[in-house]
Every structure is written in C-alpha cells, then in structure tokens.
Specification:
Layout lengths: L19 H34 L5 E12 L2 E11 L8 E2 L1 H5 L10 H13 L3 H12 L5 H27 L14 E11 L9 E9 L2 E4 L3 E4 L3 E5 L3 H16 L6 E6 L3 H10 L4 E4 L1 H12 L4 H12 L3 H14 L4 H13 L6 H8 L13 H15 L8 H14 L5
Parallel strand pairs: 4-9, 9-10
Antiparallel strand pairs: 1-2, 2-3, 4-5, 5-8, 6-7
Helix pairs in contact: 3-4, 3-5, 3-14, 4-5, 5-14, 6-7, 8-9, 8-11, 9-10, 10-11, 13-14
C-alpha cells in the first residue's frame, strides 16, 4: 500500500516569561489553525502531484475556496480548478475533490455527522448541542444541521438493525450463535410514555429492554450489571420484541443460555412479548410494582393494612392474602374497587412473583446473581436513557425522530455498537 507524507508546518511564537494562562491561550489558538493548515497542505500537495503526473499539461483556471465540517470542526481551504484538455464546457474539474471523493454539495464528512449526532443525543436539545460543539471546536453548524446529522446517523443505525432483524426472522440466520454459552442471561423490559410532537395524536409508548449476563459488586452494598446492552423502540410491540431478541442473541447468545430470566411489571403486552420471543425464559414479576399497587389500593391512610398484605404476598401465602382481602373489602368499602383490581393483578401473576426462586431450583449448578426479584436496573435505565433526553417539559417527538435520536444515544452511551 502506497502512503504519502504531508508536512504541515505552523510557526508558534511564545513570548518570554509567558504564564500558564497565556500558554493555554496560545496552544488553543494554534490548535484552531491546524485543521485548516492540514487540509490546505493536502490539497496543495495533491494538485502538485497531479500536475507532475500529467507532465505539467493541466490548464489551471484558478483557486476556489471550500468550507467543510469535519471531526475537528469547520475547515477552510483552497484547491485548484482545472480546464479539461479538450476545452469543452463547462469543462472544469478539481483534482483534489475527485481523489478524496468529496462531493460537490457535501458540507459534512461522515465522521463529522457522527460526532454532531453523538453530541445531539447527549445534550438536552439541538440548540444546546450546537453550543457545546462551539465550545469544544470554536465553531459549530446550525441547530438544523445538527438535527439533520442526528436523523441521518440514526436512520443509518436503524437500517443496520433492520438488516439484522431480516437475517434472523426472514433468512433464518442466528446471530451470535458462535459466541460462548453463558450460564445466566437476564432480560428486562418496560415501557414509558413520551409526548407527541405538538400534541398531534396520542402520546407514544417508548419500549425499552436491557440484557445482561450477571452482576458484580461495586462498593459495599451496590451491584452493577455486567455486559449490559439495551434497545429502545417507539413502534409496534412486535417490532420491539424482535429487536430485543436480536440484541439479546447477538451479544449474549441467549438461545443457548442455561438459565434465562425475563423481568417486567407483568403488563399483558410484555407477557406476550416474552411468550413469543423468550419462551424458554422464566418470567419474574417486579416486586416494586406489586408494592406500588398495594400502596395505591390502600392509600397512605392504611399503611398498616398495606404492610400486612405485602407480608402475605411475599411470604407466598396465597390463601392468607385472599382471606385478608375479603376482610379489608368489608371494612374499607370506599376502597373496594381498588382492592378488587389489586386482587386481579396479583392472583393472575402469582407464579411470576417467585420465578427467580423456581429458576434457581431448576438450575442448582448455576450461580445466579443476587436480588433478581426487582427490575430497578430497568427503571433506572429508562430514567437515564429515555427520561433525560425525551421527557423534559415542553418536549414533543415524532415517532421517527424519537427512534433516530434514541438509537444514536444508545451507541453514544456504550449500550450498543
């Protein structure tokens, strides 16, 4: 492979006795100059080499200025325009642009689009992302250009996801099948609401799922999920379920896992998702949601009754739970409808309350991670991944815009490639 060396020279004048602040300012000022000097040197050397290769037969027309947004910010440089040898009209071309595959109306490099999309996915708004880019690079494109970069990059990543989905569900390929077999894989899923753009139509359901293969101790009391990946979906639950399965299989070879646990709040949509895409998984009901339902049914005025019901539920005393509810319905007549809803919710999902314990008994040779009865990790991820970017006051989203920005955000946060 041939390589070419471009020597970029910048003369820096440092006054004698300069302070730390002055040196810092000089370094920053010269660093701003370097990208322009680099691109200008490459353009000049490329034009000079083309002229030598042609035997100096190229007819020069004049220098033209070009601005381009790159990973290093905005660069400005000049390159030579030449006439075609036969003199035909419009009959001009640029050697440098053709050799580096720079399109005529291209304003961003692919690397620049990725950088600005990443900033847009982390900042609370596109306007804020533009300001952050300006502070980092000395200049920034418009808010609209950053929005456009995020949409293009998000669409490209979602196309990759669609290709993976087609390879699994249409072509029959099993991604990650050559990966190692893991003793345990955990899957958690939940949904939250995000506001529709300008309140047009109903608010959107944003689904989110995380997949991990264990927990590690951080400090004295805290555990952290290991090898965590995530997926977000704002379209149909079926599509989200397929994406969640593909993600789990691609990164954790979930099909061959010895022990597989699916955790959720027991919503019917998520139950169907588990049945359709993770049929071999034990379905664990999040205990925090049960406690919340009990608190809602009894209200703060009857905390002692709520504690009694919680004790009966989590001690696996089904008969005692039903008997106590009958007593409470007669005594708290004004809460009867809420208590009936609580009974339906808990009884229909009673076996799911203790799924992690049953999984441990079925796999005595597998060391399961601690505290698998809740989905606190999922709730935390919804807050940090979805909430911090999509649920600020006054925000509104189209489905496509939400899907694009969240896909970029997952990559930026290191939750997917």
């Amino acid at each position: 492979m041939r390589t070419r060396t471009h020597v970029v020279s910048i003369q820096i004048v440092v006054p004698e006795g300069a302070t730390v602040k002055e040196l810092d300012e000089i370094c920053w000022r010269e660093w701003e100059r370097f990208p322009d000097a680099f691109w200008q040197t490459c353009a000049r050397d490329t034009d000079a080499e083309a002229e030598r290769q042609s035997g100096y037969q190229l007819r020069k027309k004049g220098l033209e200025k070009r601005q381009l947004w790159t990973k290093c910010g905005r660069v400005e440089f000049k390159r030579q325009r030449y006439y075609y040898a036969d003199g035909r009209e419009p009959g001009t071309f640029m050697v440098f642009d053709s050799r580096i595959d720079l399109k005529r109306h291209q304003r961003f490099t692919s690397g620049a689009r990725e950088v600005y999309a990443n900033i847009a996915s982390l900042a609370p708004s596109y306007k804020c992302a533009s300001r952050i880019a300006e502070l980092l690079m000395g200049a920034s494109p418009s808010d609209w250009s950053i929005w456009k970069s995020a949409q293009i990059e998000g669409k490209r990543l979602r196309e990759q996801d669609r290709a993976d989905r087609r390879s699994v569900f249409q072509d029959g390929e099993l991604l990650g099948a050559d990966g190692p077999t893991k003793e345990f894989v955990g899957v958690e899923a939940d949904a939250t609401k995000i506001h529709a753009w300008r309140s047009k139509g109903e608010n959107h359901d944003m689904f989110m799922g995380i997949v991990y293969d264990g927990k590690e101790r951080v400090g004295k009391k805290r555990n952290r999920l290991t090898n965590k990946v995530a997926i977000c979906g704002v379209y149909k639950p079926k599509e989200f379920g397929e994406d969640l399965f593909v993600t789990a299989q691609k990164y954790h070879n979930v099909v061959e896992a010895e022990a597989l646990l699916f955790s959720s709040d027991g919503d019917n949509v998520l139950q169907n998702l588990r049945l359709n895409h993770f049929p071999q998984a034990a379905h664990q009901l999040d205990w925090w949601h049960v406690v919340d339902r009990v608190r809602e049914a009894y209200t703060w005025q009857n905390t002692a009754d709520a504690k009694r019901i919680n004790h009966l539920i989590f001690s696996n005393d089904r008969d005692g739970f039903l008997a106590q509810l009958r007593i409470d319905r007669r005594r708290l007549r004004y809460r009867r409808s809420k208590l009936n809803e609580l009974e339906d919710y808990v009884i229909q999902r009673w076996d799911m309350l203790f799924a992690s314990q049953a999984l441990a008994k079925l796999n005595p040779h597998v060391e399961l991670p601690p505290r698998l009865r809740g989905s606190g990790a999922q709730e935390r991820n919804i807050g940090t991944v979805v909430g911090h970017r999509m649920k600020w006051r006054g925000m509104g989203w189209t489905r496509q815009g939400a899907a694009n920005i969240m896909r970029v955000r997952l990559r930026t946060l290191g939750l997917q490639n």
